[in-house]
Amino acid sequence: MQYSDLTTERLFLRELRLDDAEEIFRLRSNQDVNALIDRPSAVTIDDAIEFIKKIKTLAANREVIMWVITLMGEAKLIGTILYWHIEWENRKAEIGYELLPEYWGKGIMAETLRKVIGFGFEQLKFKKITADPKTNNKKSIRLLEKLGFEKTGETGDGYLIYELHAG
After folding, report:
1. How far, CA to CA in Å, does 164 sit from each of 45, 120, 127, 151, 167?
2. What angle do CA 144, 94, 147 make, to 5 degrees?
3. Counting beta carbons within 10 angstroms of the beta carbon of residue 12, is it exposed (0 to 12), middle (13 to 18) or buried (19 or more)?
4. What is the pTM of this model?
5. pLDDT per position as a tens digit, 53-99
6. Which of 4, 71, 86, 93 has CA atoms 20 to 30 A from the CA of 64?
7. How many angstroms separate the first and last alpha carbons of the chain?
């Protein structure tokens, strides 16, 4: 099993689609979000379309599993969550996530992470999930720690290394 729609009490997590380009552009061009992820800002809608195509290719090759986060009953993307740096043979992956700022502080990412982590351990049979938040991303660090992730190191370029093990 690779990809599956997921639901929580308030959220629907689904596959990324080309018609998500407008919201992907909003997310990837948002300075507040990009400051916490340290990536170049999307400049045009074409940047968003190219990103979606890239993710689709990586997903087809089992290198990435990405979900679009939506509110239950609504189609509009409010964030994304993905497994990447997947090592199928070692049963581990890195988790990454982002949310439009107007949805911050509402418990949405905690709810999303619980569901996707559960899917990773139970369905994908991962033994270890890692996360690499920037040192200045205090809210993400607190969230990871609340969910049981433990700090295991630093990358040396402004990121921390957190791990969560199955069982």
Report:
1. 36, 11, 8, 9, 9
2. 20
3. middle
4. 0.95
5. 999 999 999 999 999 999 999 999 999 999 999 999 999 999 999 99
6. 71
7. 20
